[in-house]
């Protein structure tokens, strides 16, 4: 019996890398390649400069000013006042630091949880079954729905009354011993609720990438492992995991970058009512509401600058820790 | 030099790349400059010829409201040949943000706006005074409350088709079954204690113990949080803003204790996730505005009673003010805009609109002939409340309908206050939450030189 279907003609182009210096490295050729490299990266670099570099520099400039959306007053230079407020003014730093903490909690929980779950699902769906396509689409389905829609539906699931779907389900299972619980309004479960709905919505995407990774593992490896009488666990440990290590690292990186962007679900659930705003506030949510509900562009810029730096540092650390083998 | 033409004429790839990079660098800067440069200009629109096409922006609210407006535009366009109106509906949730983010020269000739946001748009030079463009008859016919909402420094910037009011809808059947006596009008409103006792009595007869709807399903960290629950602050003798300062009036001990009482009602509140708690008879009371009347009267019929909000010491209070119409500051055809506003604010259109949304008409003649709001009508309570306007500043025990602060700083006032309401309802300490909101509002006002309109 085979647990894993071998992928036909596993062409692991990903492993081969670009054709750097394959033919004779003549100097003129080298500079030519360098030029081509520059040419090929130009669109991406231009996009990066236009959509990340310039806005970021602009945000840095704005964060040193007192700027209001549509105010007739000229923007005034504020120095580091916006940053001072973010870190030392108890009224502003309280919510901001809480938002940072919420973001970190979210990332720390979601990255391993979602990656692990996606791996589990991918292994589950990587077998020869009738209608496997149907199962795969079912698990992938939530990714197709926009987060705003998902959040609206989960609001009904998590509603605090006994009409809430989760509460009534628990009530039925516990034979009527479960009272109505305020999942979104309780400080302890607000973030947990956001995490659960985010994982549910996003896991299918990671699953599909891991599934592709799994299908690139040559079936002969499993056959060889079976001949060596490796158990299922040993096969997973010594064949599957090394085979998808690169994919796994990519998925973990992607998930952590995405998990810092949590915004939609918090925004929709707060507008829908009953959400504990403090317990679920994320930095993105705070930046957007500061800029567009209170028209305070300077403050919002300072928030985004601080957040950008934190995310860059975290990503660099993460890359250093989980560097894929095949990276030069 | 135009980088696009020069790069196509050049054969040098290197130069082409430089030009492209340059373009990529310059384009966002140009966009930024365009956004930043929109603040200037003068607030008096050009009268224009009074003929031609004008653009109109409105919020897309309930379906019936949008239809009433579309019908009005249709009949205006067919009633004469001089002015043509092009109507654009923008979803309500993004409407105010859209106007905020649009520079004055991109705004239409006629635009709708939510009452309390008006001062901000005047401050941003996005609205022109309408006194010279609408007819004297239209101005005279507006109710005092509507005119008060639209007035800054003696000039009118907005007039509404309808006003608004808050109240408590009750189910007579359920109230009677629980033996609860309820007020007959504004003058014998429940005190907060009586209301509390009524909730307890209702709870004893209710299967799930949830007897009141506070429109929790809409969320409180938004304009509903401010509009719906600022009356508690006013009724406790406080104010969102007094002489441009929130500290001391928003977080006074009486307001703190009133908000504590408000929070204690969460135990009796149906979360109303489906929006049908009252109409389906799950609760006996619903704390909401006039706009639910069409749905509620259809569901409950003769069983529906309309009550004032509870009195926290300084008399019952209600919010006032709603969507209004004004002229864009950069309009080149303000005379034609005025012609359209005259048409929009006549009895036919105000009547049709208020029929569609159940709101109290904001013109004297339409109010007098309104089936719902005239003396003896089912919603007389709302017109009684609006007949005792406080304005925004002088809140006394005898007046009832309070206008939300008319200041360009209103976006911050409402954001901070509604955030406080949301967190208090969620369990935060009322004193700390209100004091924090007051400090945040005051800091913002001092950052902006008190939002003095230049």
Describe what this molecule looks like in 3D:
The complex is a heterodimer of chains A (328) and B (454). Chain A is mostly helical and 328 residues long. Chain A has a domain at 104-285: Orthogonal Bundle (MetI-like fold), CATH 1.10.3720.10. Chain A has helices spanning 13-16, 27-63, 81-88, 90-125, 132-144, 147-158, 165-173, 187-215, 219-227, 232-243, 245-259, 264-272, 277-280, 283-292, 297-321, and strands at 65-66, 76-77. In chain A, strands 1-2 form a two-stranded antiparallel ribbon. In chain A, helix 3 (81-88) crosses helix 4 (90-125) and helix 6 crosses helix 12. The longest helix of chain A is centred in the first third of the chain and has 37 residues, at 27-63. The radius of gyration of chain A is 25 Å and the shape is flat. Chain B has helices at residues 3-9, 13-36, 63-79, 92-101, 118-123, 136-141, 144-149, 172-177, 192-205, 223-235, 253-264, 293-300, 334-344, 347-357, 364-368, 380-386, 410-426, 430-447; strands spanning 52-60, 83-91, 110-114, 127-128, 151-152, 155-156, 166-171, 212-213, 269-270, 285-289, 304-307, 318-320, 323-328, 389-391, 401-403. In chain B, the strands form 4 sheets. A 5-stranded mixed β-sheet of chain B has the order 2-1-3-13-4. Chain B has a 5-stranded mixed β-sheet with strand order 9-8-10-7-11. Chain B has a 3-stranded parallel β-sheet with strand order 12-15-14. In chain B, a hairpin with a 2-residue loop joins strand 5 (151-152) and strand 6 (155-156). Chain B is globular and about 65 Å long. At the A-B interface, helix 2 and helix 12 of A face helix 2, helix 4, helix 17 and helix 18 of B.
